[in-house]
Amino acid sequence: MSDLRQRKPAESGEVSPVDEKTASAENSQKEDIDSEDDKGIEENLSTTIPQGTDKTPEALDSALQNLSPRWRNWVIRGIFTWLMIFGFCFLIYLGPYALMITTLVVQVKCFAEIINIGYSVYRIHGLPWFRSLSWYFLLCSNYFFYGESLVDYFDMAINKTSPMHFFKVLVTYHRFFSFCLYIGGFVWFVLSLVKKYYMKQFSLFAWTHVALLIVVTQSYLIIQNIFNGLIWFIVPVSMIVCNDVMAYMFGFFFGKTPLIQLSPKKTWEGFIGGGLSTVLFGLGLSYILCQYPFFVCPITYSEALGSTTMECEPSQLFRPQEYSLLGKTWNIYPFLLHSLSLSVFSSVIGPFGGFFASGFKRAFKIKDFGDIIPGHGGIMDRFDCQYLMATFVNVYISSFIATTSPQKLLQQVLTMKPEQQLQMFYTLKEALENRGILSLGN
User: Fold this and answer.
1) CA-to-CA separations, 355 to 80, 209, 338, in angstroms, rounded
2) Cα 369–Cα 373–Cα 376 angle in degrees, nearest 5
3) 391 vs 425: CA distance, rounded Å
4) pLDDT, tens digit, for every residue of 14-37?
5) CA distance 224 to 153
6) pTM for this structure?
7) What residues are paired with 322 via a beta bridge?
8) How would you write 22-51 as a 3-class SS string?
9) Strands 328-332 and 321-325: what pairing?
């Protein structure tokens, strides 16, 4: 008979070594888990995020109270759509710098709307420094990108302003300073980490950087497009507006066939009607703008004037050229062919920026990004497709349009040291003489 013995159950209050280790591990895990219940992330955020379509001026609200909700929303959207169109035309009248400033303001507002949703989702308003960190990274990003623009387009003007030595240093070495500022923010973030909130803090850190990628980078590309000529800004932006308005109109009156589950109100009738309207509108608008140097000339710095100018001899792109089609000869602005490409993209791919935004809002059960525009929502609700279009236009210009500008090269040469300028002069002179372009006697 074996001498096996049964172990006695642990007496009250007695813990075995194995149980002790298990309990210790569980307590350690509990300390690392966020103290708040993460199941609340998918709760309805409509109570914390302002809903733009529900906010209407009191006078307008009382005037439309007898209309059905469908027609009431139609009238409100129509009124504020026209107000935004007139405002856009007024900004064009003010010139490129007004458009650039507006782009910056829109960028900041869009960033604020996206970041505020992040705060509401992760519910960590009380954590130290996080709101400040988000805006700090926005400042660093803008300093880098706007510094790039200043160096590219105003390098000679900056070097001529000798009294502003400090400003020149900030612009000339902006990449190094931008990197230092970002590293400072990175260290700041690490030092601000709070126990039990690590996951949420890293989630918001990623949220902030995605917002910067979507908003700041795209607004920089918009400004780059403006520098290439207002037509590269006005036409794409107007195409997106036209597509949005006409898709809504066709969908409102004729829409029956659902287009995509992300946006149940979007229909094939609206998608097709908006697309065809955008192509026709884009060609008409492009034809008109091609006739005015104000819209087609790039923004350059004139050493003679000591300031920027938009006066130029329009390039071949904006001069009528002969094309043979269907046995006939047609005088067409080459830009119209490029405008056709832009309109197709804005009609077919552009709406997917709105679908993306719809999916984002559905993920967090919110109706709008904000409430600044009655009937429309927040600024981001109106610019979700514009950012996608800005990227396409910039890529399109760099791929098919951009050429090396002699004026831009000259600006860079004039900023070089005298001995470097002389070396370049003699090298160029010798090359031209060897090719027979420059007479040896000269």
Assistant:
1) 22, 21, 25
2) 65
3) 38
4) 445 545 444 444 454 444 444 444
5) 10
6) 0.80
7) 331
8) HHHHHHHHHHHCCCCCHHHHHCCCCCCCCC
9) antiparallel
